[in-house]
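Lab channel / #folding
Pinned by the channel admin:
"Please post every new chain as: sequence first, then the structure tokens as a reply. Keep commentary short and put observations after the output so the thread stays searchable."

First post following the new format, from NK:
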Amino acid sequence: MQGACGPAGGIQSRFMAAALGSASDPAEDVYVKVNTMTTVWLRAAFSVMAVLGAAAGLSAPAHANCDWYVKTSLEQQQRNLKLKCGLSGAEWSVDKGAHAAWCASVSPDASRSTAQKREAELAKCAAK
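Reply from TO:
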């Protein structure tokens, strides 16, 4: 006998039987229930993450900007140390978390401007 989505007794029928607790194979019953619970849990987790991200004001572009900013900040500090420029202050930290937190609290323009300022200071140092 052929059902709408395949042969009778196919995956759809086995899923319904397992979901209702009447699967012929107890292992299949457990497998379907675990997969169903995992799917429900993942959907809930992703929903919570989306809400938290929106509440924190983090959009994908803002997050990408801060990833760039943190990477650039750390590279600039490494060059500061390598060139022995002696530049110091919070913006010259090697603390990745501090750079990320600061970036998340300002506009993308402010983080770009700060990175450009550091770059200019490094250029002056390298020219000496």
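NK: The longest strand covers residues 2-3.
TO: also worth noting, Residues 1-13 have pLDDT under 50 and may be disordered.
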